[in-house]
Amino acid sequence: MTNQKGQDEGKGGISPIVAGLAGAVVGAGAVIAGAVVLNDDKVKEALTNAKDQAKDYLGDVKNEAKDALHQGAEEVASQMK
């Protein structure tokens, strides 16, 4: 394993403080962009519709899985008799 602290000395790399500030600026920009996008009613409606469709689909898959499990249990029980 190498000593990373020793590698950074004297290389003129980016200061951790500068890197932190740059990360904060990029993060703030992402938050602002997200807020601007979510202010659009069409985007909100599309996201709501997608969320509702996903919930419906997952509910359908869950019900199908329950039915398949129940049918499998019945088949196993009938084979055991």
Question: Can you describe what's shown?
Answer:
- With 81 residues, this protein is an all-alpha fold.
- Helix content is 84%, strand content 0%.
- The longest helix has 40 residues, at 41-80.
- The protein is elongated.
Classification by helices and strands: mainly alpha
Classify the helix fraction into a percent range. Answer: over 70%
**How large, in whole angstroms, is the Cα Rg?**
27 Å
Taken in chain order, the helices and strands follow as HHH
Number of helices: 3
Mean pLDDT: 80
Unreliable stretches (pLDDT < 50, length at least 5) are none
Count of beta strands: 0
- N-to-C terminal Cα separation, in Å? 64 Å
Strand content: under 5%
Outline type: elongated
Described by strand count, sense and barrel closure, the largest sheet is: none
Task: Sum this structure up briefly.
This protein is an all-alpha fold. 84% of the residues lie in helices and 0% in strands.
Topology of helices and strands:
Layout: H1 4-8, H2 16-38, H3 41-80
